[in-house]
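Dissemination and training. As part of the outreach component of the grant, students in the summer workshop were shown how a complex can be specified as a set of sequence lines and then modelled as a single object. The example used during the hands-on session is reproduced here so that future cohorts can follow it. Participants entered these lines:
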Amino acid sequence: MAKSVIPIGPWHPLQEEPEFFTLTVDGETVVDMDVSIGYNHRGIEKLSEMKSFDQATFVIERICGICSTSHPFAYTRAVEDVIPVEVPDRAKYIRTIIAETERIHSHLLWLGLAGHFLGYNTIYHWVWKLREEILDVCEILTGNRNNYAIFKPGGVRRDFNMDDIPLVLRKIDGIIPTVDRLKKAILDDPVLHARLKGIGILTKEEVIDYSALGPTARASGVAKDVRKDAPYGAYDRVDWDMIVTENGDVFDKVVVRVLETYESIKIVKTCIAELPGGEIDLNIKDIPPGEGIGAHEAPRGETFHYIRSDGTNRPARHKVRAPTFMNLPTYKATVIGETISYATIILAAIDPCYCCTERMAVRDVEGKRLFGGPDLVKLSQEKTARMKREMGMP
Amino acid sequence: MKLPKARELVEAIKALIVGPYTSKFPYKPHVPYKSFRGQPKYDPDKCVGCLACEQVCPAEAIGHEDITDGGEAKRVMYHYTDTCIFCGTCELACIADNEGIKLSNDWELAFFDRKTESFETIDKELQLCEICGEVIACKDHLRWISERIGELSFSSPTLYYSKLKELGVIDENIVSALRDSGRSDRFKILCARCRRETTLT
Ligand code: SF4
Ligand code: SF4
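and obtained this result:
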């Protein structure tokens, strides 16, 4: 049987990120696929190890332009875990509010893009117009649309100006009718039903096997969310629901994201209403030697940071795991067996963020990738064996 | 089948009446919200030239240059627009009641020539050591310290002479021709090294 290979990338025309898919097709159907990333390795971990704990927050913030709260949130939690300390209540609420406004705009961004991928540009323009309102809210609260520069180990850098709060609430209330209309437009649209239902199904077992995260997992009936499973910030003090659907197809991923937008709006409004007074920062002066981990439920799933401190003012080791790292391999389960035209939207359905995922790329001078999957597994096994030996374990 | 398209039609008609959502920039200026973090600007009167902002800046967007030849002694503080990330850490760390450098609402920062237009500067007068001519600190900074520590500043000639200079009692920034690094030099404005030398003799 003759098979052809369709390359997509290395610059994805729609997702606008450097990644390279090779789809092996048989006629219209994808029979195998591979993803290659590593085009945009920025050395973030190394950079962060060159900055002080306080300054590193800004590098971390730039891991992702969309999750520019999620990474600092996880990072500051990791640093606070080293000491360990609890941040003041007001800081917790402020962090939660920013994180949730970010989730709203990130989900809206994805919805718009999904419309764009499907050639349904009405949705795209509609949603992105709506998203501007939320970005305005971010700007009013923190001083910028993205890269909020508000997180710091031990609390937050700047307090809200309480005079702005009525305007913020007005803006958030203002978007609810549009989100309602949008929800109906997306969820009743016959074309979207035809294109998204039963497409790219990720079963519950596959989610568990691949350890998929975030909306990708929740759309397949796996109820996992760091905000509920190990609450932090103000997530255990406000009332909100985890959105879980059962089908695991692309349509359900849309549903999860639309409904989560409502939950986020609810969290933001409750947090603003219940915003406690008091300090916003612990003014941490020293970070003792030790290790710490921090996680945050980013819009795309759990983001995870690990910090090792040697008692100086810089992280000795900083490890970042972005949610896409876990979600990316699920392509094997979802894309294979579908047609090429569906592959476009399935590849976008996990809301991938390749640049944030890239932590390591080893290439020779000709640009050839040196370590493939099996090599990495071997390296990892060797390291585990070496560590065991050093620690005197059997 | 018909209902969803009706929704879009309503939206389209609304857009026809309301007009485009996008603004007319650059024909109409864009006014950001009050809290917007734009270009940080120095206040030459408030800044004391302590370099705290330079130390904390995560993007290394602040630098300085000490000029001590040609009869002047000044510290030029640089703020580089092209590397700044507008995070506001400098403002939060500023020792002059957060007023030496302040984020403005200014966001239109395009320029043509990176070599000459990508930075803003202010000048601060430097205090030199009267024996060796080394830079001690900015004059304003010494005054700032002596004000903060009150009468304790009388224990340091460098500090209280700085204070006296403000009153116009002494004014020159001279490097003494006579030097014996002994008793007579103790009552001068000195850098840490010369202070140690004079004290130990
Ligand atoms: S705003 Fe941030 S990046 Fe810019 S000068 Fe101040 S500290 Fe540096
Ligand atoms: S007074 Fe403020 S602005 Fe001036 S150098 Fe010190 S920290 Fe920077």
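Chain A touches chain B at residues 51, 54-59, 122, 126, 129, 132, 136, 139-144, 147, 149, 157-158, 161, 164, 181, 184-185, 188-190 (CB under 8 Å). Students were then asked to discuss how this feature might be tested experimentally.
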